[in-house]
Amino acid sequence: MINVNIRKAAVIGCGFVGAASAFALMQSGLFSEIVLLDSDRQKAEGEALDISHGLPFAKPMQIYAGDYKDIADANIVIVTAGAGQKPGETRLDLVKKNVGIFGKIIPEIAKLDFGGILLVVANPVDILTYTAAKLSGLPENRVFGSGTVLDTARLKYILGEHLGVDNRSVHAFILGEHGDSEIVAWSSANVSGVPLNDFCEMRGHHDHETAMRDIAESVKNSAYEIIEKKKATYYGIAMSVRRICEAIILDQKSVLPVSHIQHGNFDIEGVSISMPAIVGRDGIEASVPIALSADEISALQSSANALKEVIGGLEL
Q1: Which of 99, 137, 168, 245 has its CA 20 to 30 A from that of 129?
Q2: For 60-118, how does the pLDDT look when each residue is reduced to its tens digit (9 = 90+)?
Q3: Which residues have C-beta within 8 Å of that of residue 46, sequence separation ≥ 6?
Q4: Which residues have C-beta within 8 Å of that of residue 84, sequence separation ≥ 6?
């Protein structure tokens, strides 16, 4: 196995998400080297040059366009390459196009004796995480997706606005598919240890059922709303990529709802969905048990089954 440069990252795909992620990572100061890959070499070179011109205002590092051989010693390879989601299109509509693209990218990584972590960001992220794990042959703890890290951030933001409280004090998860069948783990949600419903009543909100339904729908439809208004989403996911990379590089052992293959959790087997996991230097260190209500478990299983049905139609 090739020795890993712990402060080196690679971004495969220099569209809106890839470029925004590279920019966020440059600003983070986590890395001393970032290599950009794209099927359009000039696009990668242009993004690298554009970001490099801001380095006098940041920490010293190298950022450049490269080829697969240049990513062999990267600590984290972030795959954002794929067709984008168009207005009116669901993430699952992208399956065939993007599984085909991954069928070209992942085998190239597998040839490298790659010893780092593979972070999947392209959509549909759960299907593509499963695809990447199967095609790469890498240990499952080192292949995972951004999953519902962004959805969870959206939930915290909206709840913070609803309650008039710092959204960093809100503790709640979106679980399951990063998509239409995602669920809010309301039963474990709290604000700094205070059960959510109690905190809501303290702030003058008493119609819990309506608020929960409206907030869940708002989170689920956030991407569609942004795509309708500006044709793509990229800043929020770029910040999510930065957060996941921070947990890895600094070995923070953060609990994040990343997408990873399940093995029996809530009787879910052989499908990649988002569940809380401890993320550190070696990738996923452990799954985190979370208490869910019977309805939430049922919804989570339905979400997993919907994805499993899609996986069953793939030729991997």
Answers
A1: 168
A2: 999 999 999 999 999 999 999 988 777 777 767 778 889 999 999 999 999 998 999 99
A3: none
A4: 15, 16, 232
Report how far apart, in Å, the C-alpha atoms of 243 and of each of 51, 62, 240 are.
Answer: 19, 21, 5
The DSSP 8-state label assigned to residue 84 in this structure reads P
Q: What is the pTM of this model?
A: 0.95
Distances (CA, A) of 137 to 70, 109, 190: 20, 10, 39
Residues labelled as active-site residues: 178
158, two tokens: 């909206």
* Cα gap 225→260, rounded to integer Å: 27
C-alpha 296, offset from chain centre: 21
Report which secondary-structure segment, H or E, holds 74: strand 74-79
DSSP run (H or E) holding 258: strand 254-263
Q: What residue ranges define each of the domains in the chain, with the CATH number in brackets?
A: 5-145 (3.40.50.720), 149-312 (3.90.110.10)
The helices-and-strands tally (H runs, E runs) of the chain is 10, 14
